[in-house]
Amino acid sequence: MSSSRQLPQGAHPRHGLDEVIHAPVRFSIVATLAAADKAEFAFVRDTVEVSDSVLSRQVSTLEKAGYVAVTKGYVGKRPRTWLALTSDGRSAFAAHCQALRAIAEGMG
């Protein structure tokens, strides 16, 4: 059976998925950060519903990829950690979401 929308070899939208972002917890972290300029570690942890250690490991992976910037500081005398998507992270997330939409809409 032949389709009139045959794509060249390697053109399936899945090739646009970002393996770093694709993992469910990392995808959730990036989606949470995409909605803000920055977010406190505890807010992201609670929003994504993971433990401190799981979030820390996943953020390390995103940071190594250049997608997340980690900033440490204090609020009063209490240490705080803020997370923010880098411009590369925002671009990668947008491209990943575009690939997901293309797959979901049957363009592949």
UniProtKB/TrEMBL annotation:
<dbReference type="InterPro" id="IPR036390">
    <property type="entry name" value="WH_DNA-bd_sf"/>
</dbReference>
<dbReference type="Pfam" id="PF13601">
    <property type="entry name" value="HTH_34"/>
</dbReference>
<dbReference type="InterPro" id="IPR036388">
    <property type="entry name" value="WH-like_DNA-bd_sf"/>
</dbReference>
<protein>
    <submittedName>
        <fullName>Transcriptional regulator</fullName>
    </submittedName>
</protein>
<feature type="domain" description="Winged helix DNA-binding">
    <location>
        <begin position="25"/>
        <end position="103"/>
    </location>
</feature>
<dbReference type="InterPro" id="IPR027395">
    <property type="entry name" value="WH_DNA-bd_dom"/>
</dbReference>
